[in-house]
Every structure is written in C-alpha cells, then in structure tokens.
Write a structure and sequence with these properties.
99 residues, mainly alpha, two-stranded antiparallel ribbon, 2 helices, 2 strands, elongated
C-alpha cells in the first residue's frame, strides 16, 4: 500500500511527537516532504540519573547544610548582640559662652 503512495521510491520515516496547547491556533495541515538524501542522523540518548551519596539524593544533605548554615548565622548574630555591652552616648557638653 505504501508503494502506491510513494511510487516505489524508498521511504524514510521519522517519528514526530508534538504537543498542541492551543489547538484553536492551527490554521493548516502539516506538510511532510522528502529529504534530499537519507543521511544518517546521530541518535541522542539522554540518561537521567539521580546523583546520590550513600543512597541519599545529594540535594538532601545540600539543603540540610544550607538550612544549618543559615540557623548558625542567626544564632551567632544573636549571641554577638547579647554579649556586646551597651555604651551610652557621650554627654553633650555646652560651652559656658553658649549658656
């Protein structure tokens, strides 16, 4: 059946996946046309792996470390503020000539 459509010429099929979030914008059909040559196209294979450390995703200790660092900074600032003695401002001395 395919030979009737292609006239006996070799056919190269490409799988296409497409998402149409706004189908109301479609104003025509897809047009498929033959390539000039059947040049090999390098297939790209992506393998996603979750980076783990000791069976725990690495983002968990990283997030925990950031939270602990922020908490330590807050505690350190509070401690320094408590230990700093309150120094009253120097008294204002008015020269006798201005009294």
């Amino acid at each position: 059946m395919l030979e009737a459509v292609t006239g006996g010429k070799p056919v190269f099929v490409t799988a296409i996946e497409q998402s149409l979030p706004h189908p109301e914008r479609i104003d025509g059909d897809h047009e498929l046309r033959a390539a000039e040559a059947d040049t090999p196209y390098p297939a790209t294979v992506y393998t996603d792996r979750l980076l783990t450390m000791g069976g725990v995703p690495v983002w968990v200790p990283a997030l925990l470390g950031a939270v602990l660092a922020a908490a330590a900074t807050v505690l350190l600032v509070l401690r320094v503020r408590r230990q700093r003695p309150v120094v009253p401002p120097p008294p204002v001395v008015v020269p006798p000539s201005l009294r």
